[in-house]
Amino acid sequence: MKWVFRSVLSLAYLVIYFPIVIIAFLSVNESARDYVFTGFSLKWYAAITEEAALLEAIINTLTVAFLSTVIATILGTLFTVMLFQVKKRLRLRLLMLNNIPIVNPDIVTAFGLLSVMSVIGIRFGFPSMLLAHVFFSVPFVILTVYPKYKTLEKEVYEAALDLGAPPILAWFKVVLPELKGVMIAGALIAFTMSIDDFVISYFVYGSGYQNVSIWLYSRLGRRTFSPAIYAYNTLIMVVTALVMVAIGLTIRKEKMHEKNMD
Amino acid sequence: MFKKALAFRIWLFVFIVGPVLLLVLSALTSYSILRSGPIQVEFDALSILLDEIFIQAFLTSLKFAGYVTVISLLIGYPVAYTLSQSKSPYKRLYILALIVPVWSNMLLRIIAFEKLFYPDSILNLFGIQLDLIGTDLAIVIGMTSIYLPFMIFPIYAVLEKLDSRLLEAASDLYAHPFKRFWYVILPLSAGGIISGVLMTALPAMTTFALPERLSAGNTILLGNLIENYVMRTAQVDVASVIALGLLILMIGFYRVLLRFDAEGETLV
Amino acid sequence: MKKIWISITLLLLVTVLSACGQSDGGTLNVLNWGDYINPDLITRFEEETGIEVIYDEVGSNEEMDVRIQLATTEYDLMVPSDYMMDKWVQEGQIQPLDFDLIPNYDANNLMAGVVDLIDGERFYDYTVPYFYGTIGLMYNTNVEGLAEAIEARGFGVLFDQDSPYAIGMYDSPRDALGAALMHLGYSPNTEDASHIQMAETILKFANIAAYGEDDLNNRVIEGNLDVALVYSGDYFDELYAHEAEGLDVNFAYYAPERTNVWVDGFVIPENANNVEAAHAFINFMVDPDNALDNADYVGYTPVFTDTYETILADFELDASIFNPIPSGQTRYIYQFLSSAHNEALLEAFNRAKSN
Description:
heterotrimer, B: mainly alpha, MetI-like fold, 11 helices, 71% helix, globular, C: alpha/beta, D-Maltodextrin-Binding Protein, domain 2, 2 domains, eight-stranded mixed beta sheet, three-stranded parallel beta sheet, 15 helices
């Protein structure tokens, strides 16, 4: 029985990682024509810094991801706090509305945002892109912070108040440190969603402010396409993988530490 | 601002209720974000729902969503189950390894498949020649690769929270592991399954870049229709009707989910 | 922890400031097609004038139309094709040009064909032509018998029910149905529903391997497609690139006698913010040296006689295909008839595609 599960597990990782391996393979292909492999080369890694438009798109992607994550994490945490100022029935209703962007097909969200932004009159470009990314990140932050806050609200916060701490102080000194973990988790999800987004950015971009996905989509099959994008993607993967291995090593150390303690 | 969650309510109103209202206005009246003018009730755009183009796209979307959901569930459930039962010290690493690919650009992963599915590709180097562009298989492989993690996460989240004492009690009740699974574990993970189905089926019906690339423009899903009507012909009213239809479909799915999971905990 | 917050705030400030900050000469928002300008020229223009160019790209005239109507970015300069200019003039979306601000523009130097295309048109006072060209068939010359078939049957090779060739079709209603209409002997501007219906039918039953845009030319070169409907520049573009890299040329272009000819031009939208910079940019681009540098990069046919002659000689091109309107040929320019006509074409196209 066990081998069945094992092979399904391997199959899953294979299916998910296959395109990433292919991208890595294309990134070291010497030829600019990506249907023939002419030899190993790292030139596309060097080319990342030479392709001005791609480099700009990478910087834009990271800027928007970073800023939208920070803003969404703060905003999402504040909104969660607010949720506990209203009765449970209303709270669940608001929460339901909050979850809509998570379940809603991207293209519907994108089209909706395009409509709202053009009615409000937001300039398309950096502002619209940042706002859109904050918008679709906030629900994820709320969803991760909410369950933890629910338990804190009852126990810790009230205990602090009982001990005579003023509400604001009690919140910052007692509740916020406890929330740190879930806020980071929420921020991580928000960052992941932002760095990868294509559909929503595609509908609200403008003024030459492109992210990597839009750079890619608008250059498919064109002369301005550069395999440097494969190199960029592979670099991101390598960095993430290194972080993971680091986490893995700490886990092992902790385990060994625990064992020694026993 | 804090007292009655006012700021949050304004946020929700502007960015969640607002777009829906605009879609309804645009679908059912002469209102358009592209033009100003007097607003009158007008149902012309609704005729798209009876149009051959829409029906065809809807059925094709359902077909692919069906394929991908079933395949992802068949692979994803055992994976989530194995991971949740695992006692390996590297368990967290396995889970993280499912998140890493999401950091890789989704569109680029689609392009990677596209490059391989043409007869002349780098696979020729290994003596392999595929000719899959335009076939259903190409789209199903691409979609499964991209959406599978979104099936695994919610199911894993639910299974991970199952009380081990409950499982022990179940083993006492049902000697056979299959019965234990069927009568105890499966019903308890229903919320995760529904959430996973929601997170794979809806994107599969509405992606536009994936079918465009992997079928070389020969397969049109609902997402392609919306993109076409907005970006190529500026028929925003028709796009609104289709978007509203999808919204209603989504709410239907979502209500089922809410029965199992009132606070949306399976969604992250 | 504090340090992190301080640095985050700082970064926020810097980004917001840099997003607001403008360079001395102001900014110029340009909307153009992809791969349709020599990027060096943008840099040179910025250096010479101190104006910052913000450059957006689109894949079709229709997308330009959406962006201009949404008015979410106020563009100062756009490069649409003839029929879209016609539409915009009728709708009052663009403004007449001030030719005094474009001293480098010499209308007498325009190719005779271009003069024919713009003379007497509604948009005559609203535009400076940019490039012109045809749509036609790009094919892989390694495929046996294909060249002969194309010369004998023109667009007909695209519409065989059981074609032995892998066929690529341009993913645009105007061009795909246009080719079908011209093959059937009708005008691509016909409003007759039965003509459009017939074009839809032959497209529906045609054996199309791929719909695409600018990527079709590469598919033909790779050998993944045998023949595709493309814009003339898609072919010349690759031809220049192959010559530059010294590669073998395994592809050719054929423009059937009855085909579409189009001309793209600079226009300034009604709501442009920096009209002066827009004129300056046009003036810069029609400067003979710059026009030549641009035509060297972009594969379409230059609109000025001098530039045309130089490119023709430099690359040793075949004038019968490089000149979009050789004498004695029937060429059609697309006309904007009505929104209803446009929508009818799109619907017919979508129906033909979804089979």
